[in-house]
Design goal:
The structure is a homohexamer of 320-residue chains.
Chain A: E1 14-28, E2 34-42, E3 45-51, H1 55-59, E4 67-77, E5 80-91, H2 109-120, H3 126-136, H4 139-147, H5 161-178, H6 185-194, H7 199-202, E6 203-204, E7 210-211, H8 213-217, H9 219-233, H10 240-251, H11 268-287, H12 315-319
Parallel strand pairs in A: 3-5
Antiparallel strand pairs in A: 1-2, 1-4, 2-3, 4-5, 6-7
Chain lengths: 320, 320, 320, 320, 320, 320
Amino acid sequence: MKSLYAADIRDNQSVDGLFLVAAKNHGLTKGGNSYLTLKLLDRSGEIEARVWERADDLARGFDKNDFVRVRGQATLYQGKMQIRVHDVLRVEESKVAAEDFLPKSAFEPDAMLEELQAILRTIKNPHLLALVEACFADQELMHLLKQAPGAKTIHHPYISGLLEHTLSLLKLILKVAENYRGIDVDLLLIGGFLHDIGKVYEFSFERAVDYTDKGQLLGHLVMEVEMVSQKIAAITDFPQELAMLVKHLLVSHHGAYEFGSPKLPQTLEAVILHSLDDLDGKIQAIQSLPEKEPGSRWTAFHRAYGRSFYRKALDENQEE
Amino acid sequence: MKSLYAADIRDNQSVDGLFLVAAKNHGLTKGGNSYLTLKLLDRSGEIEARVWERADDLARGFDKNDFVRVRGQATLYQGKMQIRVHDVLRVEESKVAAEDFLPKSAFEPDAMLEELQAILRTIKNPHLLALVEACFADQELMHLLKQAPGAKTIHHPYISGLLEHTLSLLKLILKVAENYRGIDVDLLLIGGFLHDIGKVYEFSFERAVDYTDKGQLLGHLVMEVEMVSQKIAAITDFPQELAMLVKHLLVSHHGAYEFGSPKLPQTLEAVILHSLDDLDGKIQAIQSLPEKEPGSRWTAFHRAYGRSFYRKALDENQEE
Amino acid sequence: MKSLYAADIRDNQSVDGLFLVAAKNHGLTKGGNSYLTLKLLDRSGEIEARVWERADDLARGFDKNDFVRVRGQATLYQGKMQIRVHDVLRVEESKVAAEDFLPKSAFEPDAMLEELQAILRTIKNPHLLALVEACFADQELMHLLKQAPGAKTIHHPYISGLLEHTLSLLKLILKVAENYRGIDVDLLLIGGFLHDIGKVYEFSFERAVDYTDKGQLLGHLVMEVEMVSQKIAAITDFPQELAMLVKHLLVSHHGAYEFGSPKLPQTLEAVILHSLDDLDGKIQAIQSLPEKEPGSRWTAFHRAYGRSFYRKALDENQEE
Amino acid sequence: MKSLYAADIRDNQSVDGLFLVAAKNHGLTKGGNSYLTLKLLDRSGEIEARVWERADDLARGFDKNDFVRVRGQATLYQGKMQIRVHDVLRVEESKVAAEDFLPKSAFEPDAMLEELQAILRTIKNPHLLALVEACFADQELMHLLKQAPGAKTIHHPYISGLLEHTLSLLKLILKVAENYRGIDVDLLLIGGFLHDIGKVYEFSFERAVDYTDKGQLLGHLVMEVEMVSQKIAAITDFPQELAMLVKHLLVSHHGAYEFGSPKLPQTLEAVILHSLDDLDGKIQAIQSLPEKEPGSRWTAFHRAYGRSFYRKALDENQEE
Amino acid sequence: MKSLYAADIRDNQSVDGLFLVAAKNHGLTKGGNSYLTLKLLDRSGEIEARVWERADDLARGFDKNDFVRVRGQATLYQGKMQIRVHDVLRVEESKVAAEDFLPKSAFEPDAMLEELQAILRTIKNPHLLALVEACFADQELMHLLKQAPGAKTIHHPYISGLLEHTLSLLKLILKVAENYRGIDVDLLLIGGFLHDIGKVYEFSFERAVDYTDKGQLLGHLVMEVEMVSQKIAAITDFPQELAMLVKHLLVSHHGAYEFGSPKLPQTLEAVILHSLDDLDGKIQAIQSLPEKEPGSRWTAFHRAYGRSFYRKALDENQEE
Amino acid sequence: MKSLYAADIRDNQSVDGLFLVAAKNHGLTKGGNSYLTLKLLDRSGEIEARVWERADDLARGFDKNDFVRVRGQATLYQGKMQIRVHDVLRVEESKVAAEDFLPKSAFEPDAMLEELQAILRTIKNPHLLALVEACFADQELMHLLKQAPGAKTIHHPYISGLLEHTLSLLKLILKVAENYRGIDVDLLLIGGFLHDIGKVYEFSFERAVDYTDKGQLLGHLVMEVEMVSQKIAAITDFPQELAMLVKHLLVSHHGAYEFGSPKLPQTLEAVILHSLDDLDGKIQAIQSLPEKEPGSRWTAFHRAYGRSFYRKALDENQEE
């Protein structure tokens, strides 16, 4: 486990820690000496570093995308923290805890998965229950579900974020369904479970969250329809209308053409699923926005939502 | 109480009932005889009527917008029901039950208001509670709230529809708030209570739901800010920041500029209020859409949402 | 084969022909006599009809959606042709040629299919060729492909329209590919072949072209990805990247989110496929628009394109 | 009064002047020496500064947002002017003329207010005149009106800019009204006077123009409706229809939903007010755009209007 | 001069007047008798007519688009006025005053043209003055300008409407220019004069206002650039920059791409011209909208502006 | 001919080459010494340069926009290549080959023009052929056509790019026309030839591609209508309808209002021209995008198309 994170490094601090090398460039000082410009990364963020001495020697020992142990001194330079590196040494991936280098959910994935399974096993429709169990039985899928992020940037953009969002949405569905008559809760739950599950293939998330080629060219929506199609095909006597309704929930869950849904929500459950999915994502995103600047009641600007948010002084009282 | 409603009249039925005259036009048959074309209305809908005999005599006895007792015979004409009128007689408004002529909520307004007040009195913030009580104490406001429709056409477009929607939204807020930490429930409840309250002035709803001039030129959003401003001014020591946050909920509750919100939701509570308000309206609207045609699984086209909705055969099982 | 089509009936003509009953309504004349209002249909269009005598008797013999033999007299009534019916008799579906009641392509489906197969068998990539052959071997698919329309209204809206459009597009692809270097023609051909193939399930086209429930809720784009997924899964060693590229062509072929593509075209071939598909559809649609009014150089208004088109007098010379 | 402005400083010039400290950061030279990076501001713009000597000593004497006296030498560094600071000293706010640090109108606020009052006192409608006088009698309002800017960036973004714009608009209204019959000039004048008056609360403008929290969450449009509501309530017998028409002018003056008007202009006067307000703002904004580069006929790019403007050589002749 | 206009015909009135035949259709009564359905037109509007007797005889005497003298009796039929025709007779075009059949400006074209010329001759720039005189010298152009409508439907849609709008705009320009410094009034005047002059070729307006083929395919904007290009080419030493600025005014005067301007206004004068052109059109359009229904304070719905307008009771007082 | 291009310079390389000075700024080192910051340009791209010694002396010898001979040493500085200049000397424009400093087409302009003329001389319509010959006879036009770029950035943004695009489009038109009946190929060819010809006046392209003032204020679309108008006027008996159709092709060739077409394509040929023009531009643009980073299958982001493109590994095989 890492003992020092990039975000915690302060001016004048003596540094000794593990980082991922996100960029490595050579330079020449005006005096003609070689030096290195590095960008170091861990799950808390990035930090700049400079190697002014023994640059050529040290440079031979590691590459971009390697994990390294860095020793040096922190300095504030033009308002940004920078490490003046004394020594840098490559470290084997096997000696490193991956979760130190990617942000992750505040909740335990195994516990979340257990809770999610318990909720989904309350489904009464035997066909939908069979579909749920078929997914649980797919070990690779469950393995990926425990790790996948909810998004690259917009909401739940961290390891296990997909599972955290899915679980929160299922609980929200149960609450909301109590308030109305005539909602097919089983359908809503299966929709809540599967609406983003294609994200396990849409993102790569070993050293950083990024789109896979498949994710970029097909998208999670289409990939999860393929997967669900396959699982349903393997279940005996799965009713055709029911299959169509499940797939419609996936196909329409972005709610509008401009957000990449090829069909608008056209069942009551599809309308509700889109609305609650959107709400759950927004609540997480807004609550985790940093302040615009220390002490400000305004958050940083959220690009996808196109605004900052105001946080009232009242909040503290409320949460007691 | 009316015993016969326009929507229930069948081919060849003998008709004797009370209606509102929505249109009254004179015509001449090719043979040169006078006749009357009427449009009759009650809360179930409209029906065409024709007076072929004694047209001039009977016409003198009533006008457009009068209530009348009509006797005659129903006939299907070119696929639409029509009354061949034998007699028509003006009836005093005092002898008529207004609710027979406007659709109304399936729920009792007094009971709904009581439940709404009970929920709002759980608010802990003393200033917001004072604001709530100031509204309850405004008898004219409460009187109008019990009657006002939720909209002209989009959702809850019937007498007491505003109250029904407001109550449903408050209950939904309570459910959703349980699912998250860090939400200011008191603010959300006051926002849910007041977000549409200006509709009591936006619509006239004596004989039909229509926009008032004020409603058309200012809108419920602006009128309710004025009203809330006034009530807050009368409460001692109401904190300025809190007043701003309450008004922001009103000002932003349509969620987007194109729906007439002069400001986007910029607090977590404003984002949630808009989302749940929108969802509650949509659920009511979709559930009350008639079928496209008898036996169809598709509903009639909803103009504001730009689509029809599919209703699965599964619905029945679900609701047991 | 029908000898008389609705569109050819002229004023005062004596009528004896087969039609589909698209609407059937009862009425009462002012004198109290029963009569029938009918809407009769064949592939050339619709015509109104009235049964003034023996209406009740004749009405018992047939229903809406039946095929009937109608005898009577044509009359121009308020500028529209109408049949004054003397006799009407139900006809068994087996005695009727379905193609008389739906418009169809000017080209022979078997010949078109043969040409299409010849073109696709020029594909050199063995995996894509295997996919093509797997489709050809699917007899139900080929059967439907020969019949399915290209659309409900926008372009190629008639029996075998899908095949006609697909073939024309493949030929266009071959031409355009000659003009550029670096285009993967095999990919373009497979994309041209499969881009609309889901329409065989999107539409029902027995008595009229209409959307199926699946078509409305999932769309041809998603349904064809499912189908292609399944076919590819059955081919040994189909390269994953290639599968992704084929599906990307389907997923993006509408070219923009607002037209229901969940992904924008992101390969050169996807950009070209979208462009040529769009162009081929537009050429057919514009060329088959009727005149705005007889003798006008302007076509009727095309709703989807939002305009009329001007046809120059030069056209004739040009085509010689 | 300041004798030296940031924008006038030239290469190699010896500097001695008063500035506002907009940013202050510490750094370490490669040789390990402390230095300071400053951003200095006055109403003419910003300039960079560096303290290479006695950095720690001098830094203790002042903070960000302080006014300071700076002595040093100007140098062009990478194409931008920079001050090499020899000495820096905190100066009491009371010893500083605020207007030196914020751009301001070229016109005298008292004279503008007088002219504005004279125009508004030509209003004949006694109720509207009473409303005008109630505003004039509100000393805090008049005090703020003399200072408030017209906007943060788009047009009239300087001290007294709101008053300058309001006065120019009133004069324009008088001119335009002469050209048409049937315009209610009194209404237009009151609308011109009040349409932006909420900006006195929307912006803070002590050391820089910025949005207040209220301005950001409610907007000037809603705040001025509240204010006008209050003033009207205090006037005896103010006609309800007139109040509605005045408020409609405020509520609709941005002209379109996407610019934050919750209602479109729905009276002739509202249409005219929006049009002239927009025009007056644009003329000021375009005329005060700097050149794209010295000698160019094109102005700098205006972000809100999305373009540069061409200024013809003819201008000079024209203005004689 | 016509003595009776369609809009003035009342129930039971005996009719004898001149009309344009806008539609002529034959029909058969249920009893088998021939009758005619006519649509008759004059500048006040349309009226329906029926010929029940001697239909075949009378029909032979006139055609669609002929002028006719009609005698008969007016009747209200299903809420619309209708003439029961006794006699109808073709009238030579030469015996008819064209202006009786097209709505026209309330102002005298010759007087308007004179005023327009006087204003334009105040232009000081000799090149622009030469351009103005070249236009005045073009007799066909002046002849068409006196007659052309301002639009088909949106604003000034009547004979001489273009001239009325152009003159009103020039006067508005003079007023507005007084309010600002640095505006090139000569440029604005020439732009005001020429901005819509291509409409003389865009519309045909003999018997009704309609688009010409050229108008539909090229538009007035492009056609007037061609015309102005030609006129400028014939003027010695017309400065190139000035020509560019004049054409830019034409090319950008619709103000936005979506209204068919290929370029946005990029000079101060182009911005002002677009704004005032738009305003003048809107004022005329709103002022001439009919009431929604008799006695209503709301106007009929204006399709292009997407709304109705409210007319206050105050208007009368104001206009005295 | 240049022997060394900016893009080919490597770390530590000794530099001696001709460049265009795109920027020249003075600076002072912390030690108070003068230095120069230069941006040097040739057709391969830009490179930074610094003059640390004899800066004031050397600076006197050349200016921004001069051609210079530069000698020095290349160094990688902060990841970007930079020249440490030892000597710099102004070079006469006459001694420089302009094409070394602007990117140009890979094809020979004279050969392209010849091919283009051959194609256009296949036009059968004598009037259109006359128009083509009139353009060929315009030597200044032909001279400019051989040099003009296709655009500033979007597609074919290099010397002779307009000609390359025009020729490619003409060939594409010939191919596509073979696939359909009823297309007027002559019209399409003339449209393909002239649709962008106004770009010869829209851009200046001596030392860099930029918009001319005319290009910015009028646009190539309007300027080429003017030019074609003039040429047609000089041809005897050119049919008016044909002239209108040719101009319509120009006026509508951007295909949509938002792309600056004042009219939508309203003939079959205009629809096809827009589609093929768009396709040819996109193919060129996508094929010439650089990789996102070395070895990536994704291209750099294309701003106008709003995306990156994926290039499959299959490409190589395909092109053999």
